[in-house]
Amino acid sequence: IDGEECFIDILDTAGQEEYAAIRDNYYRSGEGFMCVFSITEAESFAQSQEFRDQICRILDNEDIPLLLVGNKCDLAHLRKVSTREAEALAAEWNCQYIETSAKTPSNVDECYAMIIRLIQQQKQTTNKSKSTKNEKKKHCVIL
């Protein structure tokens, strides 16, 4: 990504309940998240909201690298979730929204590049704030 080699570990639970037991541990160790739903299923859209709520609750943080992804854009004629509705949710979450098609594969690479960039930005911000705190700690005052 942007000339830098990156490695990612992906957990794709596809909302399956058999992963519920390990999901929390993966959330805790995750650095970035993609909430993926099918634009052809309103229930899938609602589940993505539940997953995002779980992630924020477990991490006790709402400022996390997150991407809302509407999949199956190749089936736009069967759309049940409007682009406007998904963009509104992304704005509420303060994250980006992208539509993809795993079938064609439209925007799939872009999706991964976006989440990696968000993770990198978060790390840079965290490192800057840590170095600022360390600089403040290095001052010596003798009275």
TrEMBL record:
One of its GO terms (biological process) is signal transduction. One of its GO terms (cellular component) is membrane. GO terms for molecular function: GTP binding; GTPase activity. Pfam families: Ras (PF00071). PANTHER family: RAS, DI-RAS, AND RHEB FAMILY MEMBERS OF SMALL GTPASE SUPERFAMILY (PTHR24070). NCBIfam families: small_GTP. This is Ras-domain-containing protein.
